[in-house]
Amino acid sequence: MPARHVLDVDDLGVAGLADVLALSRRDPAELAAALQGQGVALLFEKPSNRTRNSSEMAAVALGAHPVYIQGSEVGLDVRESAADVVRTLACYHSVVGARVFHHTSLLSMADALDEAGAGVPVINLLSDRAHPCQALADLLTLGDVFGVKTIRQRTIGYVGDANNVWRSLALAASMSGIATRVASPDGYGPTLEEVELVESFGGSLVVTSDPVEAVEGVDAVYTDVWTSMGQEEEARLRRESFAGYQVNEALVSHAADDAVVLHRLPAHRGEEISAGVVDGPQSVVWLQAVNRMHAMRGLLAWVMRFTAAGETPS
Predict the structure, then answer these.
(1) Residues contacting 231, CB < 8 A, separation 6+
(2) Taking the domain 134-289, which CATH number applies?
(3) What is the pLDDT of residue 312?
């Protein structure tokens, strides 16, 4: 049976993205049997508070048994190849979610399962290239705040590193008709290939180095950590490069009066965001955290529908 791997949000397709969001908003009781009695492997090379808890509880809500696996237990591509690891997991589980350092590990996993005809989907729980589950939660959050029918009229201003979080967010926004802007210092902005991919879905994208330009009049201001896990040796250089890119009260004052502030967490107060903003009345970071669970529940239900129906991914 074919499997619908989700390594970035565009793997869903525009219609699939809308379907996942709709499933995520449904009463959990309506989806309670989607994975009844089945296993969900959750492989974590990188630890995470929100991703682990949201993924486990989403699996449980669908009737599944989640199994958390630390990277050290399998030694991905050290003790055992990514291909052999995932083929083993597919012997016991109906879905494999993986949070990895290198996106190439996910590609190897998906290819190995396809070649084996395993019919087990791989979901990216975070890689150096993409964070699709976070992007789904972000769209759910904007729908909660502004109303599902009006989010196409909204604009998101992202300030900081155009990293994996930005990439998936920009793709999801463009696929949903939401305009985005991104402000990054030289050397940390999106590549031409990324810009072309985002724009290929029809959403407006403005790339700038000016944080004020990025947030002027926007409905949502978004930022992320300046130094991600695995980049610790770059921390000092990054703090210097991103000086002036903090999302603080002065910067947020340029956004719309009813604008909200998003951050995927964990937040480094005093670096990429001020305490007054992340803990202030415009912050919706905890709603984002809640929606990580809802988004994962919808995503798991969606990938299992393709597997059960035996549909070929488009």
Answers:
(1) 238
(2) 3.40.50.1370
(3) 47
Q: What is the pLDDT of residue 228?
A: 78
pLDDT computed for residue 227 by the predictor: 86
In angstroms, the CA 31 to CA 166 distance is 30
Instruction: Note the helical H segments in the chain.
Output: 13-25, 49-61, 71-74, 82-89, 103-116, 132-146, 164-175, 192-199, 211-215, 235-241, 249-252, 275-278, 285-309
What residues does each domain of the chain span? 9-130+292-309, 134-289
Looking at residue 306, what is its pLDDT?
73
214-260 tens-digit pLDDT: 999 999 999 999 987 677 778 899 999 999 999 999 999 999 999 99
Say whether 134-289 and 9-130+292-309 share the same fold: yes
**CATH, range 9-130+292-309:** 3.40.50.1370
Region 122-132: mean pLDDT is 98
Predicted TM-score (pTM) of the model is 0.96
Q: How far apart are CA 183 and CA 136, in angstroms?
A: 22
Q: Rounded CA gap, 205 and 199, in Å?
A: 7
3-state secondary structure of 129: coil
The residue that leads in pLDDT, 231 or 304, is 304
Structure token digits, residue 293: 């669970």
- What would the DSSP string read from start to end of 154-173? -EEEEES---HHHHHHHHHH
Residues in the chain: 314
Residue corresponding to tokens 């670096």: 271
Q: Number of helices (H) and strands (E) in the chain: give both, helices first.
A: 13, 9
Amino acid making up residue 184: S
Closest CA relative to residue 99, chosen from 64, 55, 141: 55
Task: List 183's β-bridge partners, or say none.
Answer: 159, 208
The letter for the amino acid at 139 is L
